[in-house]
Structure formats: C-alpha cells, structure tokens
Specification:
Chain B: It holds the Pfam family Mt_ATP-synt_B. The structure holds 2 protein chains of 2 kinds. Chain A has 5 helices and no strands. By secondary structure, chain A is mostly helical. Chain A is extended and about 65 Å long. Chain B is mostly helical. Chain B has a domain at about 45-90. In chain B, a hairpin with a 3-residue loop joins strand 1 (about 50) and strand 2 (about 55). The chains are: A mainly alpha, B mainly alpha. The interface of A and B includes residues 4, 12, 22, 66 and 77 of A.
C-alpha cells in the first residue's frame, strides 16, 4: 500500500463510493461500548503501524469534516472548534514556557 | 505541466494495486454491492453544538448519569481545578484572550444571525444555479415527451381521418357504381322500349296493309252480280221486316 491508495479492505464493487470517514476493515466493538476490563484486549487487537495510525487520524478528520464542515448550511461551530482546538494545542506545546508565568509558588 | 505529469503517474501507480485489491477481495466477499451495510453517503445536517462549539453528544453522554446540569458542573469544576492548580496559567495572554472572547461574542451575537441569513441565501442561490441547467433539461425533456405524446395523439386522429376518407371514397365508389348501374338499366330499358315500339309499329303497319289489301281485294272480287244479289237480299229482308 503506497501513499494515496485506498485501504486494502476497500472494494468498490461491494462498498460503492469511497467514504474517507469510514473504516472498511472488519468492525470491532465500538470503543464507547466497551467494558473497562475489555479495553486492554481491544487495544491489543488494534493495528499499531504508522499507516494505520494515519488512517485513523484521516477518518477522524473526515468524520469531523462531514459532520461540521461539509453540510450545506453550517454554522460557525467548526470555526470555533478549530479555534478552541488550536488554542488548546498551542497552549500544550507552549506549556513549558507558560509555567514560568505562574503567580503562586504553592498550590 | 509537471503537476499534471505527477498526477498521472500517481493515478497510474494507483490504478493497478486498486484493481488488484478489487479482484483480490472480490473473491473473499460475495462481490455484490452491499447497499445495506454500505449505503451511499448522504450529505446530512450539521451536528448540533452547545455553547457555540461543544458537540451535543458530549452533553448527552453526561445526561444519562448526571442530568442536565452535570456537564456544566463538570466544565466549571474542571476549569476551577485547572485555574486553582495553575495548570492553566493566567498570564498576560489570558486577559488578551478574554478581551478577544468578548469581541468575538459580541460580533457573533450581533452580526451572526444576519451573516447566517445572507450566507444561507447565497448557498441557496448557488444550489439553484447548479440545479438550473439540470432542471431545465429535465423540463425540456418532459415538454418534448408531452409534445411527442400529443403528436402521437394527433397521428391517431390522422388515422381516423384517413379511415373516414377511405370510407368516403368507398361511398363515392358505391354511388358511382349505382349511378352507372342505373344508367345501364335505363339504357337497356330505352332500347327494349324502342324495340317494343318498333315491333308494335311494324305489326300495326303490317296489319293495316293486310287489311287494306284484303279489303281492296275483297272489294275487287265483288262482282256486279253479287252486288245485285245482295241488294235483292237486303230488300227482301227489309220487306220481311216491314211485314212484321
């Protein structure tokens, strides 16, 4: 599987038009429906290759796109989400510098 | 130019493995289009959010356990914790952020609805423009179908008309036939009448001639002797009558 290819499991004859937000592999129990003791084995079953991670990120991105950005009449919500997300991200990466601005020594 | 080349090479690279994959997995799965589990994606409504950006689902996740105020309590509690432990440090940028937040809040409440209305109208315009060609094509095709149907209906009428015309011609032929038959009958009758009259005339003339001839001959054959005898006889008869 090279860059820019469809996932291996995707078969146009069966799955129809490609939905980038969709996982075409064998479906597992959704994470939200797991019991706590199943989480370990659930992560054990996940593929942890870089391409699988990239694929998961891509699906998350497209799910967000389809839900908030691509509909016909969107509000300002996706922009605010981007704003808040980027604020959080940049706060996190700059946290080491921010720490020095603390006002109290003891908490 | 180069970008197109690059695209082409990507497409060429992609097509073979994809085709292989398609063939490979077609043997595993039935190979038929699975409409039930993989329906064609539809463009939905945007997801619901609260407070401008937080997905509604997150609130629903809390709702089952903690009720309506739970997520807000959690949010405020988390913020308090972050502020209190100075995990979120309120340095100078924090106050900048507050003022920016106030500005954004004011702008989005003041101009948001109007802008949304305007943009929705633009979206509708764009959609209408995109659909216009398709709709007009559909309409023209429907019109031409209707025209074709009407033309067929008219053609049926034309058939009726031709049928009527044929019947009319047949009637005319019948009339001509009858007229000619009548003429023939009249002509034959005229000739037969002529023959009849001729025969009658000939017979009358012949009779007349015969009568004339007979009378003439008879007159010629009467001798003065006979005449005298007849006269005597007549006189005798008269005398006999007179005697009575």
């Amino acid at each position: 599987m090279a860059f820019g290819d469809y996932p291996k499991e995707y078969n146009p004859a069966v799955h129809g038009p490609y939905d980038p937000a969709r996982y075409y592999g064998k479906p597992d129990t959704p994470f939200g429906q797991l019991k706590l003791n199943e989480i370990g084995s659930w992560f054990g079953r996940r593929s942890k290759t870089p391409s699988a991670f990239m694929g998961a990120c891509s699906r998350v991105w497209w799910r967000w796109q389809h839900k908030y950005v691509q509909p016909k009449k969107v509000g300002i919500a996706p922009f605010f989400q981007l704003l808040v997300g980027s604020m959080t991200f940049f706060y996190a990466i700059n946290y080491g510098k921010m720490k020095h601005h603390r006002n109290y020594k003891y908490h | 130019m180069f970008s197109r080349l690059a695209l082409r090479s990507v497409a060429a690279r992609q097509s073979t493995p994809t085709a292989l994959v398609a063939r490979g997995s077609a043997t595993e799965v039935s190979g038929l289009r699975d409409e039930k589990n993989f329906p064609r994606p539809v463009r939905g409504e945007p997801g619901k959010v609260r407070l401008g950006f937080i997905p509604e689902e997150w609130f629903q996740f809390f709702h089952a356990k903690t009720g309506v105020t739970g997520p807000y309590t959690f949010g405020v509690g988390l913020a308090t914790y972050l502020f209190s432990k100075e995990i979120y440090v309120m340095e100078h940028e924090y106050y900048t952020g507050l003022s920016i937040f106030v500005m954004i809040y004011y702008a989005s409440t003041k101009f948001g609805p109007k802008l949304a209305e305007f943009l929705d109208k633009e979206v509708d315009n764009v959609e209408t423009n995109w659909n216009a060609g398709r709709l007009s094509t559909i309409k023209s095709l429907e019109d031409s179908i209707a025209g074709e149907k009407e033309a067929q209906w008219r053609a049926q009428g034309q058939e009726l008309l031709i049928e009527a015309k044929k019947e009319n011609v047949l009637l005319q032929l019948e009339a001509a036939y009858r007229e000619r038959a009548l003429t023939a009958y009249q002509e034959v009758k005229r000739r037969l009448d002529f023959q009849l009259e001729k025969t009658l005339l000939e017979r009358r003339i012949a009779q007349k001639n015969m009568v004339d001839w007979i009378v003439a001959n008879v007159t010629k054959a009467i001798t003065p002797d006979q005449e005298k005898q007849a006269m005597d006889r007549c006189i005798a008869d008269l005398a006999a009558l007179a005697k009575n």
